[in-house]
Design brief:
Layout: E1 2-6, H1 10-21, E2 29-33, H2 36-45, E3 50-54, H3 63-72, E4 78-82, H4 87-95, E5 100-103, H5 109-162, H6 169-197, E6 206-209, H7 210-224, E7 231-235, E8 242-245, H8 248-264, E9 270-277, E10 283-290, H9 297-303, H10 319-329, E11 333-337, E12 349-355
Helix pairs in contact: 1-5, 5-6, 6-8, 6-10, 7-8, 8-10
Protein backbone atom coordinates (compact mmCIF):
# COMPACT_ATOMS: atom_id res chain seq x y z
CA UNK A 1 0.00 0.00 0.00
CA UNK A 2 1.39 3.39 -1.02
CA UNK A 3 0.74 5.90 1.77
CA UNK A 4 1.23 9.65 1.58
CA UNK A 5 1.85 10.83 5.15
CA UNK A 6 1.36 14.56 5.59
CA UNK A 7 2.92 15.23 8.99
CA UNK A 8 5.30 18.01 10.04
CA UNK A 9 6.31 16.44 13.35
CA UNK A 10 9.21 13.98 12.71
CA UNK A 11 8.57 12.20 16.01
CA UNK A 12 4.92 11.48 15.16
CA UNK A 13 5.91 10.39 11.66
CA UNK A 14 8.53 7.98 13.03
CA UNK A 15 6.02 6.54 15.54
CA UNK A 16 3.47 5.89 12.78
CA UNK A 17 6.12 4.08 10.70
CA UNK A 18 7.10 1.93 13.68
CA UNK A 19 3.48 1.06 14.52
CA UNK A 20 2.76 -0.09 10.99
CA UNK A 21 6.04 -1.97 10.77
CA UNK A 22 4.88 -4.25 13.57
CA UNK A 23 2.59 -6.06 11.11
CA UNK A 24 4.29 -8.20 8.52
CA UNK A 25 1.01 -8.83 6.71
CA UNK A 26 0.63 -5.12 6.02
CA UNK A 27 3.24 -4.19 3.37
CA UNK A 28 3.43 -0.45 2.85
CA UNK A 29 5.51 2.28 1.27
CA UNK A 30 5.70 5.71 2.86
CA UNK A 31 6.15 9.08 1.25
CA UNK A 32 6.18 11.93 3.73
CA UNK A 33 5.69 15.66 3.33
CA UNK A 34 5.78 18.29 6.06
CA UNK A 35 3.20 20.70 4.60
CA UNK A 36 0.10 20.66 2.45
CA UNK A 37 1.67 22.41 -0.53
CA UNK A 38 4.27 19.66 -0.98
CA UNK A 39 1.57 17.03 -0.45
CA UNK A 40 -0.50 18.43 -3.32
CA UNK A 41 2.57 18.35 -5.55
CA UNK A 42 3.17 14.70 -4.67
CA UNK A 43 -0.45 13.84 -5.45
CA UNK A 44 -0.13 15.51 -8.86
CA UNK A 45 3.06 13.62 -9.71
CA UNK A 46 2.63 10.19 -8.11
CA UNK A 47 0.00 7.56 -7.33
CA UNK A 48 -1.05 6.86 -3.74
CA UNK A 49 -3.57 4.43 -2.31
CA UNK A 50 -4.38 6.59 0.71
CA UNK A 51 -3.46 9.87 2.40
CA UNK A 52 -2.80 10.02 6.14
CA UNK A 53 -3.33 13.69 6.91
CA UNK A 54 -2.35 15.72 9.96
CA UNK A 55 -4.73 18.66 10.19
CA UNK A 56 -2.31 21.16 11.78
CA UNK A 57 0.50 21.94 9.38
CA UNK A 58 2.80 24.93 8.89
CA UNK A 59 0.79 26.22 5.91
CA UNK A 60 -2.76 25.35 7.00
CA UNK A 61 -4.74 24.48 10.12
CA UNK A 62 -7.84 22.50 11.14
CA UNK A 63 -10.71 21.75 8.78
CA UNK A 64 -9.23 23.94 6.07
CA UNK A 65 -6.43 21.42 5.67
CA UNK A 66 -8.79 18.64 4.70
CA UNK A 67 -11.04 20.87 2.59
CA UNK A 68 -8.08 22.19 0.57
CA UNK A 69 -6.84 18.65 0.00
CA UNK A 70 -10.28 17.41 -1.08
CA UNK A 71 -10.84 20.33 -3.44
CA UNK A 72 -7.51 19.54 -5.09
CA UNK A 73 -7.72 15.75 -5.11
CA UNK A 74 -10.96 13.78 -4.76
CA UNK A 75 -9.79 10.45 -6.15
CA UNK A 76 -7.70 9.35 -3.15
CA UNK A 77 -9.15 8.25 0.21
CA UNK A 78 -8.11 10.31 3.25
CA UNK A 79 -7.68 9.35 6.90
CA UNK A 80 -7.23 12.42 9.11
CA UNK A 81 -5.14 12.71 12.26
CA UNK A 82 -6.72 14.84 14.99
CA UNK A 83 -5.42 16.03 18.33
CA UNK A 84 -6.79 15.02 21.71
CA UNK A 85 -10.22 16.61 22.25
CA UNK A 86 -10.82 17.11 18.54
CA UNK A 87 -13.01 14.05 18.05
CA UNK A 88 -16.00 16.21 17.09
CA UNK A 89 -13.97 17.75 14.29
CA UNK A 90 -12.95 14.29 13.13
CA UNK A 91 -16.56 13.14 13.00
CA UNK A 92 -17.54 16.24 11.00
CA UNK A 93 -14.75 15.59 8.51
CA UNK A 94 -15.88 11.98 8.06
CA UNK A 95 -19.34 13.35 7.25
CA UNK A 96 -17.62 15.72 4.81
CA UNK A 97 -15.82 12.97 2.90
CA UNK A 98 -12.91 11.66 5.00
CA UNK A 99 -12.85 7.88 5.27
CA UNK A 100 -11.87 7.84 8.95
CA UNK A 101 -10.14 9.82 11.70
CA UNK A 102 -7.58 8.79 14.31
CA UNK A 103 -6.64 10.63 17.48
CA UNK A 104 -2.94 11.26 17.98
CA UNK A 105 -1.60 9.66 21.13
CA UNK A 106 -4.23 6.93 20.94
CA UNK A 107 -3.05 5.18 17.79
CA UNK A 108 -2.19 1.50 17.97
CA UNK A 109 -0.61 -0.43 15.13
CA UNK A 110 -3.58 -2.72 14.49
CA UNK A 111 -6.00 0.23 14.62
CA UNK A 112 -3.94 2.23 12.14
CA UNK A 113 -3.50 -0.69 9.74
CA UNK A 114 -7.19 -1.54 9.84
CA UNK A 115 -8.22 2.08 9.32
CA UNK A 116 -5.98 2.48 6.28
CA UNK A 117 -7.03 -0.85 4.77
CA UNK A 118 -10.73 -0.15 5.29
CA UNK A 119 -10.34 3.38 3.93
CA UNK A 120 -8.98 2.02 0.65
CA UNK A 121 -11.64 -0.69 0.44
CA UNK A 122 -14.53 1.67 1.18
CA UNK A 123 -13.23 4.20 -1.32
CA UNK A 124 -12.96 1.51 -4.00
CA UNK A 125 -16.52 0.36 -3.34
CA UNK A 126 -17.85 3.93 -3.35
CA UNK A 127 -16.15 4.70 -6.67
CA UNK A 128 -17.61 1.52 -8.18
CA UNK A 129 -21.07 2.51 -6.96
CA UNK A 130 -20.67 5.98 -8.47
CA UNK A 131 -19.77 4.47 -11.84
CA UNK A 132 -22.71 2.09 -11.63
CA UNK A 133 -24.99 5.02 -10.79
CA UNK A 134 -23.72 6.96 -13.81
CA UNK A 135 -24.37 3.96 -16.04
CA UNK A 136 -27.88 3.55 -14.64
CA UNK A 137 -28.62 7.24 -15.14
CA UNK A 138 -27.37 7.04 -18.74
CA UNK A 139 -29.60 4.02 -19.41
CA UNK A 140 -32.52 5.89 -17.82
CA UNK A 141 -31.95 8.90 -20.08
CA UNK A 142 -31.75 6.73 -23.19
CA UNK A 143 -34.81 4.69 -22.26
CA UNK A 144 -36.83 7.82 -21.40
CA UNK A 145 -35.96 9.33 -24.77
CA UNK A 146 -36.85 6.17 -26.71
CA UNK A 147 -40.07 5.56 -24.77
CA UNK A 148 -41.07 9.20 -25.32
CA UNK A 149 -40.62 8.81 -29.10
CA UNK A 150 -42.61 5.56 -29.17
CA UNK A 151 -45.35 7.08 -27.02
CA UNK A 152 -45.53 10.12 -29.29
CA UNK A 153 -45.95 7.87 -32.35
CA UNK A 154 -48.77 5.96 -30.62
CA UNK A 155 -50.46 9.21 -29.55
CA UNK A 156 -50.31 10.62 -33.07
CA UNK A 157 -51.92 7.54 -34.59
CA UNK A 158 -54.63 7.47 -31.93
CA UNK A 159 -55.45 11.11 -32.63
CA UNK A 160 -55.88 10.23 -36.32
CA UNK A 161 -58.38 7.55 -35.31
CA UNK A 162 -60.22 9.99 -33.03
CA UNK A 163 -60.61 12.37 -35.98
CA UNK A 164 -62.42 9.80 -38.09
CA UNK A 165 -66.20 9.69 -38.24
CA UNK A 166 -66.59 6.00 -39.17
CA UNK A 167 -65.35 4.59 -35.86
CA UNK A 168 -68.09 2.89 -33.80
CA UNK A 169 -68.87 4.47 -30.45
CA UNK A 170 -67.90 1.39 -28.48
CA UNK A 171 -64.49 1.31 -30.21
CA UNK A 172 -64.00 5.05 -29.84
CA UNK A 173 -64.54 4.73 -26.10
CA UNK A 174 -61.53 2.41 -25.85
CA UNK A 175 -59.44 4.56 -28.19
CA UNK A 176 -60.04 7.63 -26.03
CA UNK A 177 -59.14 5.70 -22.89
CA UNK A 178 -55.83 4.58 -24.41
CA UNK A 179 -55.17 8.11 -25.68
CA UNK A 180 -55.63 9.41 -22.14
CA UNK A 181 -53.04 6.93 -20.90
CA UNK A 182 -50.50 7.97 -23.55
CA UNK A 183 -50.86 11.57 -22.35
CA UNK A 184 -50.26 10.43 -18.80
CA UNK A 185 -47.12 8.59 -19.94
CA UNK A 186 -45.91 11.72 -21.76
CA UNK A 187 -46.42 13.81 -18.63
CA UNK A 188 -44.57 11.31 -16.44
CA UNK A 189 -41.66 11.10 -18.89
CA UNK A 190 -41.36 14.88 -18.79
CA UNK A 191 -41.22 14.76 -15.00
CA UNK A 192 -38.59 12.00 -15.13
CA UNK A 193 -36.50 14.22 -17.41
CA UNK A 194 -36.86 17.07 -14.94
CA UNK A 195 -35.85 14.84 -12.04
CA UNK A 196 -32.86 13.57 -13.99
CA UNK A 197 -31.72 17.14 -14.63
CA UNK A 198 -31.59 17.83 -10.89
CA UNK A 199 -28.37 15.79 -10.64
CA UNK A 200 -26.35 18.75 -11.81
CA UNK A 201 -26.33 20.66 -8.51
CA UNK A 202 -27.01 24.40 -8.88
CA UNK A 203 -29.77 25.13 -11.38
CA UNK A 204 -29.07 27.84 -13.97
CA UNK A 205 -31.75 30.53 -13.94
CA UNK A 206 -32.88 33.42 -16.11
CA UNK A 207 -35.75 35.92 -16.39
CA UNK A 208 -39.11 34.71 -17.74
CA UNK A 209 -42.35 36.50 -18.65
CA UNK A 210 -45.22 34.59 -17.01
CA UNK A 211 -47.74 35.77 -19.63
CA UNK A 212 -45.67 34.20 -22.40
CA UNK A 213 -45.13 30.99 -20.45
CA UNK A 214 -48.79 30.59 -19.47
CA UNK A 215 -50.05 31.28 -22.98
CA UNK A 216 -47.72 28.62 -24.34
CA UNK A 217 -48.66 26.17 -21.58
CA UNK A 218 -52.34 26.73 -22.41
CA UNK A 219 -51.73 25.91 -26.07
CA UNK A 220 -49.87 22.71 -25.19
CA UNK A 221 -52.54 21.47 -22.78
CA UNK A 222 -55.36 22.25 -25.23
CA UNK A 223 -53.47 20.24 -27.84
CA UNK A 224 -53.33 17.32 -25.39
CA UNK A 225 -57.16 17.19 -25.26
CA UNK A 226 -58.37 17.58 -28.87
CA UNK A 227 -61.71 15.89 -28.18
CA UNK A 228 -62.54 17.86 -25.04
CA UNK A 229 -63.64 21.44 -24.61
CA UNK A 230 -60.96 22.41 -22.09
CA UNK A 231 -61.58 26.00 -20.95
CA UNK A 232 -58.36 27.53 -19.58
CA UNK A 233 -58.81 31.12 -18.38
CA UNK A 234 -55.61 33.04 -17.63
CA UNK A 235 -55.67 36.22 -15.56
CA UNK A 236 -52.68 38.48 -14.91
CA UNK A 237 -52.48 42.12 -13.80
CA UNK A 238 -51.52 44.88 -16.21
CA UNK A 239 -47.81 45.17 -16.78
CA UNK A 240 -45.13 42.50 -16.91
CA UNK A 241 -45.07 39.68 -14.36
CA UNK A 242 -41.58 38.22 -14.48
CA UNK A 243 -40.00 35.41 -12.49
CA UNK A 244 -36.55 33.91 -12.04
CA UNK A 245 -36.34 30.32 -13.20
CA UNK A 246 -35.07 28.09 -15.97
CA UNK A 247 -36.37 26.27 -19.04
CA UNK A 248 -38.22 23.78 -16.83
CA UNK A 249 -40.80 26.41 -15.90
CA UNK A 250 -42.86 25.74 -19.01
CA UNK A 251 -42.92 21.99 -18.30
CA UNK A 252 -43.95 22.70 -14.70
CA UNK A 253 -46.81 24.96 -15.77
CA UNK A 254 -48.01 22.40 -18.33
CA UNK A 255 -47.94 19.71 -15.65
CA UNK A 256 -49.89 21.83 -13.17
CA UNK A 257 -52.58 22.82 -15.68
CA UNK A 258 -52.80 19.20 -16.87
CA UNK A 259 -53.18 18.06 -13.26
CA UNK A 260 -55.99 20.56 -12.79
CA UNK A 261 -57.74 19.14 -15.86
CA UNK A 262 -57.44 15.65 -14.41
CA UNK A 263 -58.54 16.80 -10.95
CA UNK A 264 -61.72 18.27 -12.47
CA UNK A 265 -62.93 14.85 -13.57
CA UNK A 266 -65.38 16.51 -15.95
CA UNK A 267 -66.06 16.20 -19.66
CA UNK A 268 -65.71 19.96 -20.14
CA UNK A 269 -63.26 21.13 -17.47
CA UNK A 270 -62.67 24.77 -16.67
CA UNK A 271 -59.31 25.82 -15.26
CA UNK A 272 -58.81 29.29 -13.82
CA UNK A 273 -55.17 30.39 -13.74
CA UNK A 274 -54.35 33.60 -11.88
CA UNK A 275 -50.87 35.02 -11.51
CA UNK A 276 -49.81 38.11 -9.57
CA UNK A 277 -46.88 39.54 -7.61
CA UNK A 278 -46.99 38.96 -3.85
CA UNK A 279 -47.30 41.93 -1.53
CA UNK A 280 -43.60 41.87 -0.61
CA UNK A 281 -42.61 42.07 -4.28
CA UNK A 282 -40.09 39.26 -3.83
CA UNK A 283 -42.29 36.42 -5.08
CA UNK A 284 -44.86 35.82 -7.81
CA UNK A 285 -47.85 33.61 -6.97
CA UNK A 286 -49.81 31.55 -9.49
CA UNK A 287 -52.97 29.61 -8.66
CA UNK A 288 -54.62 26.82 -10.65
CA UNK A 289 -58.27 26.21 -9.78
CA UNK A 290 -60.40 23.50 -11.37
CA UNK A 291 -64.19 23.06 -11.38
CA UNK A 292 -64.19 19.44 -10.26
CA UNK A 293 -65.58 17.87 -7.08
CA UNK A 294 -62.31 18.35 -5.22
CA UNK A 295 -59.72 16.01 -3.77
CA UNK A 296 -59.21 15.35 -0.08
CA UNK A 297 -56.35 17.14 1.67
CA UNK A 298 -54.86 13.84 2.79
CA UNK A 299 -54.60 12.64 -0.78
CA UNK A 300 -53.09 15.92 -1.93
CA UNK A 301 -50.50 15.91 0.83
CA UNK A 302 -49.41 12.43 -0.19
CA UNK A 303 -48.99 13.64 -3.77
CA UNK A 304 -46.10 15.88 -2.69
CA UNK A 305 -44.37 13.10 -0.74
CA UNK A 306 -41.69 10.84 -2.12
CA UNK A 307 -43.38 7.72 -3.54
CA UNK A 308 -42.76 4.52 -1.58
CA UNK A 309 -43.78 0.95 -2.31
CA UNK A 310 -46.09 -0.13 -5.07
CA UNK A 311 -48.43 2.52 -6.54
CA UNK A 312 -52.16 2.16 -6.11
CA UNK A 313 -55.03 3.39 -8.23
CA UNK A 314 -55.80 6.12 -5.67
CA UNK A 315 -52.37 7.72 -5.88
CA UNK A 316 -51.83 10.86 -7.97
CA UNK A 317 -48.50 9.70 -9.38
CA UNK A 318 -45.00 11.15 -9.06
CA UNK A 319 -45.58 14.30 -11.11
CA UNK A 320 -46.41 16.67 -8.25
CA UNK A 321 -43.60 15.27 -6.11
CA UNK A 322 -41.04 16.08 -8.82
CA UNK A 323 -42.63 19.48 -9.48
CA UNK A 324 -42.27 20.32 -5.80
CA UNK A 325 -38.64 19.19 -5.82
CA UNK A 326 -37.83 21.45 -8.79
CA UNK A 327 -39.72 24.44 -7.36
CA UNK A 328 -37.96 24.04 -4.02
CA UNK A 329 -34.61 24.06 -5.80
CA UNK A 330 -35.59 27.28 -7.55
CA UNK A 331 -36.37 28.92 -4.21
CA UNK A 332 -40.15 28.72 -4.63
CA UNK A 333 -43.02 26.97 -2.90
CA UNK A 334 -46.06 24.87 -3.85
CA UNK A 335 -49.14 23.81 -1.93
CA UNK A 336 -52.58 22.40 -2.65
CA UNK A 337 -55.95 23.05 -1.05
CA UNK A 338 -58.51 20.28 -1.41
CA UNK A 339 -62.20 19.83 -0.88
CA UNK A 340 -61.96 19.91 2.91
CA UNK A 341 -60.61 23.46 3.06
CA UNK A 342 -62.67 26.64 3.27
CA UNK A 343 -62.37 27.55 -0.39
CA UNK A 344 -65.11 29.19 -2.46
CA UNK A 345 -66.77 26.67 -4.74
CA UNK A 346 -65.76 23.11 -5.40
CA UNK A 347 -62.60 21.82 -6.98
CA UNK A 348 -58.94 21.75 -6.08
CA UNK A 349 -56.58 24.71 -5.82
CA UNK A 350 -52.87 24.41 -6.62
CA UNK A 351 -50.78 27.40 -5.60
CA UNK A 352 -47.12 28.01 -6.46
CA UNK A 353 -44.68 30.83 -5.80
CA UNK A 354 -41.56 31.72 -7.79
CA UNK A 355 -38.88 34.33 -7.00
CA UNK A 356 -39.68 37.56 -8.81
CA UNK A 357 -37.08 38.96 -11.18
CA UNK A 358 -38.27 42.56 -10.77
Amino acid sequence: MRILLVEDNPGDARLIRIKLGEYSDFPFEFTRTENLGDALTELDESFFDVVLLDLNLPDTKGKDTFEKLRSHTIGVPVVVLTGYGEETMGQELVQGGAQDYLVKGQIEGHTLARSLRYAVERHTIMEALKEEKKDNELYLDIMSHDIHNLNWAITTRLEIVVGREDVPDNVMEHVLAVLEQTRTIASLLTMVRLRSSLRGGTLPTQQHDMQVLLDRAKELVEYMYPTQDVDIAISLPDGPVEVTGNWWLLDILVNLIDNSVRFSGKVDPRIEVTCRPCDDGKMVQCEFKDNGPGISDEKLRSAFEKPTGEPTESELGIGLYIVKEVIDRLGGDIKAIGSDEDVQGDGTLLSIQFPSSI
